[in-house]
Amino acid sequence: QVQLVESGGGLVQAGDSLRLSCAASGRTFSRIAMGWFRQAPGKEREFVAGISWSGGRTDYADSVKGRFTISRDNAKNTVYLQMNSLKPEDTAVYYCAADNLSLRPGIPPVRDFGSWGQGTQVTVSS
Prior knowledge:
Elements: E1 3-7, E2 10-13, E3 18-25, E4 34-39, E5 46-51, E6 58-60, E7 68-73, E8 78-83, E9 92-99, E10 113-116, E11 120-125
Parallel strand pairs: 2-11
Antiparallel strand pairs: 1-3, 3-8, 4-5, 4-9, 5-6, 7-8, 9-10, 9-11
């Protein structure tokens, strides 16, 4: 099991930027693929971005491609989500999640993200 704590959310205006952080502890972070998800009110949780354990592969939802960037610092046991050109439709609670497996090539399927943080609220006003 890995413990995850998100931070960096807040209230911003459309067009602004935010960087979310997710600090991990427990398992060997450097061997685990990580992901960011979000859930807006009344909607299901959706995948936003993922990064492989090495950082060599990333994947994004179409709705955030070109605006969001996922990265990781294995020395700090932290994964980041840089969000630029924010839109009101990006408003949601953002969660980071960890792969159930270690050293998996690439990005895991959504069902294999087994450890979750408590979430951080991002609100984008128009």
